[in-house]
Each structure stands twice: as structure tokens, then as C-alpha cells.
Hints:
Layout: E1 6-7, E2 25-29, E3 33-38, H1 56-66, E4 74-75, E5 84-90, H2 93-104, E6 109-117, E7 125-128, E8 131-133, E9 141-143, E10 151-160, E11 163-170, H3 177-184, E12 221-229, E13 236-240, E14 243-244, H4 245-251, H5 253-267
Parallel strand pairs: 1-14, 5-12
Antiparallel strand pairs: 2-3, 3-5, 4-5, 6-11, 6-12, 7-10, 8-9, 10-11, 12-13
Helix pairs in contact: 4-5
Amino acid sequence: MVELVLRKDAAEGPDAPAAAARAADILFEDAFLLCADKPSGILVHSDGTGGKTDTLTARVRKHLEEEGRSASAQAVQRLDEDTTGCVLFSLAPEFQGGLDTLVAGHAMEKLYLACVRGSLPEGPHVIAAPLGRDRHDARRMRVSPSGKDAKTTVWELLRKGGLTLALVSLGTGRKHQIRVHLASEGHPILGDALYGMRGGPAVPGFDLLPKGGRERFGLQLHCWRESFVHPVTGEKLSATAPVPESFCSLFGGNEIERALAAWESRKR
């Protein structure tokens, strides 16, 4: 049975604390690696401009300082600024190569939750469409015949009104892959202004939310679970990040718990 844990924090914007003001929430930790729970509104690491110093990396290092550890944390994964959930860190340079190989070789199962517009096809729906940069907008990626191969598998978990809660598995790890693949099939993620449907609302899906509640919803994409074999110990590991409260306010916490448990039962 899936044990649903809710994250209570909201998106963190300009008023978030400065670097090292708080420690990261840790999902798993040993002598070699650490998995942290990234909130919305912060970068995984500095973008090099010096403008945003409150990063997940800074918070992980704050956690290590509070634990009295001298480990050097280095992120081996990246999530978009507004995406939440699991991010893996190496805690020593000599182990980072093994973690990089693990991530780059796609030997890790990564499962995301996404709130999307519209209804999805039944069963596991595979989106296999190459992705490349958008020549007209440097911020965006797009489906392109000349792009790199990309594969995304999607399951519909719950449906409410015009919105669907989807479980998403990555077969590859291209930039903005989930966001582009879902939007390309007419199912943009709630709160994704960059890949919203042309001619639709500025932020897709917000017109389907109750009035007065729209400001609570940023990008509804969450890295829920990562499962892999520990590159040093050989142990099978699984880290699960708490489901954001915004998802539960849309679909109900109990309903999400039952839907995830049913999906896992079918998978077995």
C-alpha cells in the first residue's frame, strides 16, 4: 500500500530565505549519496550569475553542516526551477562517476506526477518523439524529426473535470521532455506557461480551477519516486518525495493514495 505523505510548503519565490538559511529535506542519505526533496521556486544549483544564491545544493550543504559532516555535495541530476521532488547528490568526488553513469545510462526508474489538461488514452501510453531546440525561442524545446530520440510513458491515474492526474515514466532524459511531450499531444501541464496550448489561457488549466485559488498553483510536475541499484553497495533503493499539497487539493489525498496503490498492484 502506498503511504501518502503531503508536502505542506508552497512555491518559494523572491521572498524565500537567502542561501543556507534552511537545510534541505532529505529523503535518503548514506556515506556515498543523498536524495533531497526539492521545493518549487529554487534552482538545483547556482546559474552562475550570482543572482540566486538560495539553491537546493546550498540547502543540502547546510544540512551536512548541521550534521557535522564535511562531505562535498554535488548534484548529479537537475530539475527545472518550478518542478518539485527527488534530486540525487554525490557526497564524495570518488563516487560521483558511478552516479553519473547510473543517471546517464538510464538504469534508474524515475516516476513523475503531473496534472494535465484533458483526458489521456487508456493504459500505458507511449510518446516516442525526438526533441530538439526551438529555433525561434531559446528557452523552449520542441518535437523535431532532426532532434534526439525521446521516450515518455504515461498512465492516467485520476480524472476530475477537465484535468487529469498522470503518472509519467522517463525512458530518456531530454530537457523539458515531459512538458514538451505532453503538450505536443494536447495535454499541457497545469501551470506551464512556456508550453501552454496556443490560443488557450496564458497558463493552461487555470480556467478550470476555482476562482480565488489560482495563485496557489505553479507548475504541477513532481518527481515522485526514484528507484535504482546503489552503485557502491549494490543495494536496491527507492526514494519517494511527499506529494505536494496542491495535487491533493485538486484530486484528494485519499484518492491519489488509492490510485497509486492500484497502479503498483497492476505493475506487479
